[in-house]
Amino acid sequence: MNYSNFNIEDFLADEGFQNFILHPKDKHDHLWTNFLKEYPEKRAEFMEAAKLLKHLEIEPRKPIPEEFEMDIQEISAYLNQPNITTKRNNVVQLFPYWRKIAAAFLFMAFSATLYFYVLPKVLEKPVAEAPSIETIERETPKGTKLILTLKDGTRVKLNAESKLSFPESFSDEFREVTLVGEAFFEVAKDSTKPFVIKSGNLTTTVLGTAFNIKAYPGEEDIKVAVEEGKVKVETAKKQTNMLVANEMVTFNKMAGGIQKSHFNPAEILCWKENTICFKDASFDEIKTTLERWYGVDFIMKEGLEIKEEFNGTFVNKSLEEVLIGLNYTSNFKYDINGKSVFIR
User: Is 303 helix (H, G, I), strand (E, B) or coil?
Assistant: First the structure.
């Protein structure tokens, strides 16, 4: 039998399937024991049929010989009535007509059974909820970073002030995580289960590659940059872009527009090597980056505006060393007091 075409109704009607689901202690039927391994594409129909079958719990009613005999007698009496013709030339007309009567009778009996017996049972019995899968969250406060290895072998480096949410175990169809903030992913290859990252209004899908996503809530843009491999990025409005190595997309949250471009990995990906990179950065960008990196708060003198743009690369430098370097191109003054940085 070709089980690849089975739907829910076919499963419910199959006696072997009924025995397999309703008598779980008797697992001698190797067909159904190994069914999902041979037909993984039928998992949804298989599980739905099993759930329905367990909820109904209807024992088949065996026909009673006395009732069957009474039905035969009633049918015979009807056929022997004087106004029912039995001539040979009318036999062909009689039997199709009688088949219609019998079909209608069976349909009404089946409908009555559903209405008076099955439906009340289904409504009375609460539907069992699917087993919940625990969601794990890993969060980095300001001034910290974190490296994670997920169960599938994927490595994630989480930047400061970021959060990654993922299930305790991935499903059989795909691997999905949610990112708030910034992270670099080295996705373990699995051609049968795509790796999906939800970050705001963007969905990034890969099979196995290395890439960076920057999606902080307070920033105007979400950026996805690919170091190696191939990535699909899709917006909530189904705008799709395919990216390869050294390509990135920038999605503006307000306008909803998405722009594809090339990028310099030394600038975009430097953070994962404990390096701070600034390229034509405003002081607001500088402030935001340093607050996350060092876990401090900048307090600006009222009315002070710093309009210069800044460039620089700082490898494993202290906060004061970074401020000294930036101060070469600007005349701002600073004071560091614990976790507060005063700019004047």
Answer: coil
- Strands of the chain (E only): list them: 135-140, 146-149, 155-158, 162-167, 175-186, 195-199, 202-206, 210-215, 221-228, 231-235, 240-243, 247-252, 258-262, 275-281, 297-300, 310-315, 334-337, 340-343
Report the run of H or E that residue 93 belongs to, with start and end.
Answer: helix 88-113
CATH number at residue 211: 2.60.120.1440
- The answer to whether residue 129 is domain-embedded is no
Tokens in use for 340?
A: 């507060």
Whether residue 107 sits in one domain with residue 210 = no
Distance of alpha carbon 55 from alpha carbon 224, whole angstroms: 46
Q: Which domain holds residue 189?
A: 135-268
- 52 with 175, same domain? no
**Do residue 16 and residue 119 come from a single domain?**
no
pLDDT of res. 19? 77
pLDDT in tens, 100-151: 444 444 445 545 555 455 555 555 555 555 556 789 999 999 999 999 999 9
Can you spell out the DSSP letters for 108-157? HHHHHHIIIIIHHHHHHSPPPPPPP-PEEEEEE-TT--EEEE-TTS-EEE
- Give the Cα-Cα-Cα angle 34, 154, 226 (nearest 5 degrees): 125
Residue 223 DSSP SS3:
strand
| 148 and 78 both lie in a single domain | no
Number of domains present in the structure of the chain: 4
The Cα–Cα gap between 201 and 184 comes to 18
Question: Whose structure tokens read 């069914």?
Answer: 35
Residues 191 and 305 in one domain: no
Q: For residue 130, is it within any domain?
A: no
Asked if 166 and 252 sit in the same domain, the reply is yes
38 three-class SS = helix
Domain termination residue (choose one: 201, 234, 268): 268
Other C-beta atoms within 10 Å of 128: how many? 9
Mark whether 233 and 299 lie in a shared domain: no
The per-residue pLDDT for range 159-216, each reduced to its tens digit, is 999 999 999 989 888 999 999 999 999 999 998 899 999 999 999 999 889 999 999 9
